[in-house]
Write a structure and sequence with these properties.
Layout: E1 3-5, E2 8-10, E3 13-17, E4 24-31, E5 38-45, E6 55-62, E7 65-69, E8 73-74, E9 78-84, E10 90-97, E11 102-110
Antiparallel strand pairs: 1-2, 3-11, 4-10, 5-9, 5-11, 6-7, 6-8, 6-10
Length: about 110
């Protein structure tokens, strides 16, 4: 699936849409088994929502502990993300979205 953030098209990443419900975390888990040191990527609200007054946050957990929380991001903003995940066994990537919104964590890389 492709998405656009601030006019740039991305085809790699994690995308969540809250078209039918909102006000909660949308999340996905990964088993890292402590094999990586850093997670990096970019985060923003999909351009198809740019005309709506909206904001969203990206939250990253390692072994159920919050490691990173972005600022409330508005449509058109793209936030560069770099989080230390050394020794993390279970990684959770979550989006805090309102109803009728969509956001993406694009070009994610584990090193």
């Amino acid at each position: 699936m492709q998405t656009a953030l601030s006019g740039k098209i991305y085809s790699t990443g994690i995308y969540f849409s809250a078209d039918w419900s909102g006000g909660k975390l949308y999340e996905v888990d990964y088993n890292l088994e402590g094999k990586y040191d850093v997670l990096a990527g970019e985060f923003g609200i999909d351009d198809k929502y740019k005309d709506r007054d909206t904001s969203c946050a990206l939250i990253i957990f390692g072994d159920d502990k919050e490691l990173y929380r972005s600022v409330q991001t508005k449509a058109g903003d793209v936030v560069k993300v770099k989080v230390e995940v050394k020794s993390v066994k279970k990684l959770k990537i979550a989006f805090e979205l309102e109803k009728g919104k969509g956001a993406a964590f694009v070009n994610p890389v584990l090193k």
